[in-house]
Automatic annotation (TrEMBL):
Annotated residues for binding of Ca(2+) 2: D183
Residues bound to Ca(2+) 3: D200, G201, D220, E223
Cofactor(s) demanded: Ca(2+); Zn(2+)
Residues reported in the UniProt entry to bind Ca(2+) 1: E223
GO cellular component labels: extracellular matrix
This protein's name: Peptidase metallopeptidase domain-containing protein
Organism: Salix viminalis
Entry's family note: Belongs to the peptidase M10A family. Matrix metalloproteinases (MMPs) subfamily.
Length: 288
């Protein structure tokens, strides 16, 4: 084994011990099909299980359950439905994304309103049971956090991001200095940080926000963040607006790539403004 291979093996083993899925390892599985048994296929299964497409991971066999999970994933993200780990599907899985599942044991409530030609015009979702806040004034604070280059503007960025949601709802938001007074706590963390949702280093999962009324928003400190992102940086405001959507009760929008609540982002990309799907979803959840 060469030095690079040995380093990758150690990296994967260390992450597996933490329950972390190394996204890059899925690259080795391109064009694997049903009936094959391939070492590391369980990594693709772990990925699909984490995001709600598969219920269990028990081997490296490409079985009927995996094929069905891949088909559902492909349908959700407008990919050709092949049931295989084809290049387009693997490339989609490799993109940086939010750590919140897309499907919660099939109990998401998806809006199914369609236009006259049968095309879906909204695809927002809620968390199971559609939890929401009973109060309209939410206080937030910033917790003890890892020092992160490029995140110096986190306070002003979050203020702007909360305001995007305030403009289309009845919510108001206020930063407070003490955690005891806050409904929402925001911080940067690395790897396993005690919430059973470990980060995975650079690439992969970049942040997660918890459903109402848990009130936690965590950014991955190992990512390269910026308020004016370059090619290899993540836009802090785009991700903040997305994760605040989760804090307020929205799940992911799978069929609308322009929506804030679409789970994937690209490095260097800015997507800061709420779209019709996002606005319809939050207004539906709160009866506005």
């Amino acid at each position: 084994m060469d030095v690079f291979g040995e380093h990758l093996f150690i990296h994967v083993e260390f992450h597996n011990q933490l329950g972390i899925i190394p996204f890059k390892s899925i690259l080795n599985l391109v064009e694997i099909q049903k009936g094959q048994s391939v070492s590391e296929l369980h990594l693709a299964k772990q990925y699909l299980k984490k995001f709600g497409y598969l219920n269990q991971v028990n081997d490296d066999e490409f079985d009927d359950l995996l094929e069905s999970a891949i088909r559902t994933y492909q349908q959700n993200f407008r990919l050709e439905v092949t049931g295989r780990l084809d290049k387009r599907t693997v490339n989609q899985m490799m993109k940086p994304r939010c750590g919140v599942p897309d499907i919660f044991n099939s109990t998401n409530r998806y809006n199914s309103s369609k236009t006259s030609d049968g095309v879906a015009k909204a695809d927002y979702s809620f968390f199971p049971g559609a939890p929401k806040w009973s109060k309209k004034h939410l206080k937030y604070t910033f917790g003890a956090t890892v020092q992160v280059a490029g995140a110096e503007s986190i306070r002003s960025v979050c203020k702007q991001s909360f305001q995007k949601w305030a403009q289309v709802t009845e919510f108001t938001f206020e930063e407070v200095p003490n955690a005891a007074d806050a409904d929402i706590k925001i911080a940067f963390y690395q790897l396993d940080h005690g919430d059973d949702e470990p980060f995975d280093g650079p690439g992969g999962i970049f942040a997660h926000g918890f459903r109402p009324t848990i009130g936690m928003l965590h950014f991955d400190a190992d990512e390269t963040w910026s308020s004016s992102p370059g090619t290899l940086e993540l836009d802090l405001e785009s991700v903040a607006v997305h994760e605040i959507g989760h804090l307020l009760g929205l799940g992911h929008s799978g069929d609308h790539p322009d929506a804030i609540m679409y789970p994937y982002f690209d490095y260097g990309m800015k997507k800061r403004n709420l779209q019709e799907d996002d606005i319809e979803g939050i207004r539906d959840l709160y009866g506005l």
